C-alpha cells in the first residue's frame, strides 16, 4: 500500500470516529431520567450523570413528616438515576458493543440501570386487578385482604 493511500484511509477513519463521537455526545447530552413518588406529590429529574436537575414538591406535602419526604425524594432520585443510566448504557452499547468498556460503564452505575434485570415489577392496572366474580361468589369466598 502506498503511503499516501494509507494516510488517506487513516484520515477517513479519524473523520468517521469524530462523527461517531459527536453523535454520541449529542445523544448523551439529551439523556435524563425522572421519577414521581407513588402518591404523585414528589417529582425529580436527573441528568446523564445522575445529578438532580429538578425537584417538584406539591403543596399537599405541607405538614408531612420531613423524614418521610426525604426518604421519598431519595427513592425517586434513585429511580430517576436508574432510568438515566439505562439510557447511557444503551447509547454506550451502540458505540462499543458488548465489550469490557460497556461492562466498565455498567459497573459504575451506583443504582444499577433500567433493564439490568432488577427492575421492580409494575403492578397490573387496577382494571385487571378487579375481582369480577358475581356477588354471591365474592361474599361466599371473599379475597384475603390481610396478608
TrEMBL record:
Residues 127-136 have a biased composition (Basic and acidic residues). InterPro entries: YbaB-like_sf, YbaB/EbfC. This is YbaB/EbfC DNA-binding family protein. Pfam families: YbaB_DNA_bd. Residues 106-147 are annotated as: Disordered. It comes from Actinosynnema mirum (strain ATCC 29888 / DSM 43827 / JCM 3225 / NBRC 14064 / NCIMB 13271 / NRRL B-12336 / IMRU 3971 / 101). GO terms for molecular function: DNA binding. Gene3D superfamilies: Nucleoid-associated protein YbaB-like domain (3.30.1310.10).
Amino acid at each position: 500500500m502506498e503511503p499516501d493511500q494509507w494516510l488517506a484511509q487513516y484520515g477517513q477513519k479519524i473523520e468517521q470516529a469524530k462523527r461517531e463521537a459527536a453523535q454520541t455526545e449529542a445523544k448523551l447530552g439529551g439523556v435524563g431520567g425522572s421519577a414521581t413518588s407513588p402518591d404523585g406529590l414528589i417529582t425529580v429529574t436527573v441528568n446523564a450523570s445522575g445529578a438532580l436537575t429538578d425537584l417538584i414538591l406539591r403543596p399537599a406535602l405541607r405538614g408531612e413528616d420531613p423524614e418521610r419526604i426525604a426518604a421519598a425524594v431519595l427513592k425517586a432520585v434513585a429511580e430517576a438515576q436508574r432510568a438515566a443510566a439505562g439510557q447511557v448504557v444503551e447509547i454506550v452499547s451502540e458505540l462499543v458493543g458488548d465489550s469490557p468498556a460497556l461492562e466498565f460503564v455498567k459497573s459504575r452505575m451506583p443504582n444499577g440501570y433500567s433493564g439490568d434485570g432488577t427492575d421492580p415489577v409494575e403492578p397490573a392496572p387496577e382494571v385487571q386487578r378487579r375481582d369480577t366474580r358475581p356477588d354471591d361468589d365474592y361474599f361466599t369466598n371473599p379475597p384475603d385482604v390481610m396478608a
